[in-house]
Specification:
It is a single chain. This protein is of the alpha+beta class. The protein has one domain. 23% of the residues lie in helices and 27% in strands. The protein contains four helices and eight strands, in the order αβββββββααβα. The strands form two sheets. It has a six-stranded antiparallel beta sheet. Strands 7-8 form a two-stranded parallel sheet. A hairpin with a 5-residue loop joins strand 2 and strand 3. It is globular, with a radius of gyration of 15 Å. The two termini are 19 Å apart.
Length: 166
């Protein structure tokens, strides 16, 4: 039996070379508007899907002042899913900022109190790095975008409190 934490550890500890990039829109069975897909080569039961746009509240209110640190202030949010046997078992939100420059950020918790609003977990950072580097497009921009936005990679105490979100 696979536990969720074990599965997430496999994903976070993997390298982009362990994933087969299936490419945009090439999985016809998917009905949730993800545009990108990848399969974990050592165990094809594990896959990633990303690109489904977040259609919730606008991302321009309190807590999003950091977006003004980028040349283009628009923020687009999208989902990235971890799937086991085709079923989504974990979902993260990623943010695309700076227009055509295409920087990607992990999304801080939308429910975080103001003092934690720009904090992300080490797992969120690693997941964003992986998602961005599978298609080999921009894996190296995640860290610079995190720094530019002024996000803080949180300590273990914050990580433990965020685990309630899972």
């Amino acid at each position: 039996m696979m536990k969720l934490k074990e599965l997430l550890d496999i994903v976070i500890d993997s390298t982009p070379y362990e994933w087969r990039d299936i490419g945009p829109g090439s999985v016809s069975l998917d009905e949730d508007d993800h545009g990108m897909f990848a399969v974990y080569k050592p165990d094809v039961s594990l896959s990633l899907a990303w690109g489904q746009q977040y259609m919730g509240s606008p991302l321009d209110g309190p807590g999003y002042e950091w977006r003004k640190k980028f040349v283009v202030h628009d923020v687009t949010a999208y989902y990235a899913d971890v799937r086991w046997n085709g079923v989504t078992v974990h979902r993260e939100m990623l943010l695309s900022v700076d227009g055509s420059a295409g920087h990607t950020l992990p999304a801080p918790s939308l429910r975080a109190e103001e003092t934690l609003a720009n904090r992300i977990t080490p797992m969120q950072r690693e997941f964003a790095r992986l998602i961005c580097s599978i298609p080999n497009e921009q894996g190296n921009t995640v860290d610079s975008a995190i720094e530019q936005a002024g996000f803080v990679v949180a300590d273990d105490d914050f990580l433990l409190s965020r685990m309630e979100d899972f």
